[in-house]
Structures are given as structure tokens and as C-alpha cells.
Design brief:
Blueprint (H helix, E strand, L loop, with lengths): L27 H20 L3 E4 L10 H9 L26 E2 L4 E2 L33 E5 L1 E2 L5 E2 L1 H9 L7 E7 L5 E3 L3 H13 L12 H6 L3 H7 L2 E4 L16 E4 L5 E8 L11
Parallel strand pairs: 8-9
Antiparallel strand pairs: 1-4, 1-7, 2-3, 4-10, 5-6, 7-11, 9-10
Helix pairs in contact: 1-4
Length: 281
């Protein structure tokens, strides 16, 4: 008998693959990851068909209009795939001709004249976010659930928060998106959620081993956003939490999108913060 026939065979641990729901009971990481994906599928179904609002921060040091226009038009995703000479309708306004202002000879590409934010260009593919921090560094887009008022204007938890806490960020216009079905949206509402997510990838060998009994800083320093972005299309947070250091800065209900192919631009809408009659919102 050959000696290798006496040696018990060890099961090979495979790297987790996107969309894999195979039961791998010899590694608890697979069980946890598959549970997280099943929960994420339900959250994706819950958001499907709903409206999300993106409100760009008002940037007081914005580029001059000419520079912003040239930067935007240089992005290949702003152009029609079937006819590369035509801008997509959402971005056509960037090509408007310059105009003279009040007969002064100033044109809208002069330093004194600023250009407002345009709708974000939804680039195909997934964002790749490096490990570390309690928020992803490179989500493709952040949105908050849209709330329509009786006057037709929209608000969201983010719009309300900026109006009250960071008025320089608040903008009176935003962009409305509709969520397509099929997205895997990971829920992250507490440090317990963060620990469970981390342990899943730690057990799979794709996250750095840490001391989970230590201060939350070790969890934050190496949080596996690269793996989260690989396996999920977005991260949803339900709102401010008082009991979790890890959730510091997650002030409002919001979704960080890694894959914006699950969003359809509806259009530009007026945005408000708090009103005297809050019941309207």
C-alpha cells in the first residue's frame, strides 16, 4: 500500500466566488457568506422599484464652467454607445454654447462664474474599494430614499441632515433614480452586523485576522470593503445608531452603491430640507 493512501485527504478550501451559494459546511465562512447573500437578496427585493435621491454637495469652490464641461465631456460614458458622436440626453446640456452675461463681455467660462453639479455618470462595472475605514472609500454613488412632498419637491434623510447640520453642502436640486430588481444589498446597521460580515471573510481567508475582543479600531482599520464590494452590489444603512462606535458617521438612512447598473436615472428634481409642515415630508 502506498504511503499516501494512508494519509487522510484534506478538503480543499476554495476562494469565495460571486454568486456562489454552494453549501460548504466545513468552513463556517461559507455558511455566513451565503446567509448574508440570502438576506441581501431580500433587501434588494425590498428596494426594487423604489426611488432614490442623490443630492450633490454644493461646492463653493467649483471649477469654472469651461473646465467642468471639458472634464465631463471627456468621460466616454457620457456618449451614446450606438453613436459615439452624440451625447446621452442626460448630459446633452453640458454642450450648450457659451453666452454673454449682461452685456459685460463676461462669458460663462470665466473664473467668476461657476457651473452647478450635473447628474453623476453611472459607469458600468463594480467599484473596487480597498480595505479599511468604517465606510467604503470608493462607492460609485451614495443615495438616500426619496420622499415626495405635496408640492412636488423631494427630500430625503440626507437632504434633511445637510440642511440642518451642513447647510453649505445642501443643494436645492437633486437627481432621482429608480432601483432595478436583482441587486444584492447588504444591510449594515450595527457593530454586530460589522462583526458578522468581518468574520465571514476572515474565516474564508480573504480578510486579515483580528482580535474581535479588542477596541473597535481594529475592526475599522482592516474592514474588508474589497470583499464586500466583490460580493454585493450595495450597502444599506437604516439610520443613525447611538450604540455603535463602528457606525460613527453613518448619520442617515442611505445606500452606498458599488454597482450602479441597478439604478435608472429618472431625472433632475427640486429638493427641500425641513419645512414648517413636516407632515408633508
Amino acid at each position: 500500500m502506498l504511503i499516501n493512501e494512508l494519509t487522510p485527504r484534506r478538503k480543499k478550501v476554495r476562494e469565495p466566488q460571486v454568486g456562489d451559494t454552494t453549501a460548504h459546511d466545513y468552513n463556517p465562512g461559507w455558511e455566513d457568506l451565503n446567509w448574508l447573500k440570502q438576506a441581501a437578496q431580500k433587501d434588494g427585493e425590498r428596494l426594487a422599484g423604489r426611488l432614490q435621491l442623490f443630492v450633490p454637495r454644493r461646492n463653493l469652490s467649483a471649477q469654472p464652467a469651461r473646465d467642468r464641461r471639458m472634464d465631463n465631456l471627456a468621460n466616454k460614458y457620457a456618449w451614446d454607445e450606438t453613436d459615439p458622436t452624440q451625447l446621452k440626453p442626460s448630459y446633452a446640456k453640458w454642450e450648450q454654447p457659451r453666452k454673454d452675461l449682461s452685456g459685460t463681455g463676461m462669458q460663462d467660462d470665466d473664473e467668476e462664474v461657476k457651473v452647478a453639479e450635473g447628474a453623476p455618470i453611472l459607469q458600468p462595472g463594480k467599484a473596487s474599494s480597498p480595505p479599511g475605514n468604517n465606510k467604503p472609500y470608493r462607492a460609485s454613488l451614495w443615495t438616500s430614499s426619496a420622499i415626495k412632498g405635496a408640492d412636488g419637491a423631494y427630500t430625503s434623510d440626507w437632504a434633511k441632515w445637510t440642511k440642518s447640520n451642513q447647510p453649505d453642502w445642501f443643494s436645492n436640486k437633486g437627481y432621482l433614480y429608480k432601483v432595478k430588481p436583482g441587486a444584492l444589498i447588504l444591510e449594515l446597521n450595527s457593530e454586530h452586523d460589522a462583526q458578522r460580515i468581518y468574520r465571514a471573510f476572515e474565516n474564508l481567508g480573504t480578510a486579515k485576522p483580528i482580535d474581535h475582543s479588542a477596541h473597535y479600531g481594529s475592526l475599522t482599520a482592516a474592514f474588508p470593503w474589497d470583499q464586500v464590494a466583490k460580493h454585493f452590489d450595495g450597502v444599506w444603512h437604516g439610520g443613525y445608531r447611538y450604540d455603535s462606535d463602528f457606525m460613527y458617521g453613518w448619520d442617515v438612512e442611505s445606500t452606498a452603491w458599488f454597482d450602479t447598473s441597478f439604478l435608472t436615472l429618472v431625472g433632475q428634481v427640486p429638493v427641500v430640507g425641513y419645512k414648517d409642515n413636516e407632515d408633508d415630508y
